[in-house]
Amino acid sequence: MSAPSSGGASRDGYGRGLLRAADDQRVVVLEADLGKSTKSCNFRAEYPDRTISLGIAEQNMMLVAAGMAASGKIPFASTFAIFSERGFEQVRNGIARPGLAVHICGSHGGIHTGTDGSSAQSIEDLAIFRSIPKMTVIHPCDDVSAEELTVQLMGLEGPSYMRTARNKTRRIYEVGDESIEIGKGRVLLEGSDVAIIACGVMVEQALDAADALSEEGIMATVVDMHTIKPLDTELIDKLSDSCGCFVSAEDHSVIGGLGSSLAEWLSSNRPTPLEMVGVQDRFGESGGSDELLQALEISAIEISSAAHRAISRKNSP
What we know:
It is a single chain. This protein folds into 2 domains: about 5-170, 3-Layer(aba) Sandwich (Rossmann fold); about 185-315, 3-Layer(aba) Sandwich (Rossmann fold). The chain is about 40% helix and about 20% strand. The chain has 13 helices and 14 strands. The protein has a 7-stranded mixed beta sheet with strand order 3-2-4-5-7-6-12, sandwiched between helices. Helix 1 (about 10-20) packs parallel to helix 8 (about 145-150), helix 4 packs parallel to helix 6 (about 90-95) and helix 9 crosses helix 13 (about 300-315). The longest helix is centred in the C-terminal third of the chain and has 16 residues, at about 300-315.
């Protein structure tokens, strides 16, 4: 792939994806008083008659979305990731149990949100929604992949949860990249010493870590595992054979997220050393994004250190 370029935030890609999906008259957008922040406001501006603003009532929004899906519509419902958690019971019983195609977007997820502080930093959302049967769980790394994955949600028969981020990140994909596909990890860099599996804003950190490792003569494979559920186990199996050890990297708790998903598969199918880089069993705190990546020990430096540990375990007798 070509060198990454400056881009936007993944929430911007979500907003553009909604506009592309608008050609299908069944698409409706639901907001919980945060359309400007989630970028669903772009759809509202063009299609006000297909946008429903429900105010600060996330639980109600989930059930209204369920009713619309049951009536033949394709609802996209968005709010902050932390507020999406309020609707867990409604998502579980009203959306997922009947298998309705409601697509939920939680913006401002993870500690990368920064100065909003720990009360607004959802570091458990991926784990919460991954635990619900029938849910597809996605965390794009940039605005291009967020846009493409949003459009692809139109083809899902069941419900989904997508986490997007507020802050701009380096653009990893080129516009129009047809290799982006729900349920398929994308290999961004190839190496045989260690496989770094990342999602969201941590894909950028993983690529930086791979660059640093290469200066030491360590060649890393870097994968954007934007779909956390269903996990691309076929790719994981191949990397288990070709690299022999893994590092997971996520702006999320190490409990229940991408690293846990990898560990669950590897422990039962391909016993392979895995080091998990993520938020430990704690809440976040207020600070700049780069400050928090370092304070919570999930930056490129920690990924490089984890790679050394994973390789050491692979080479141990």
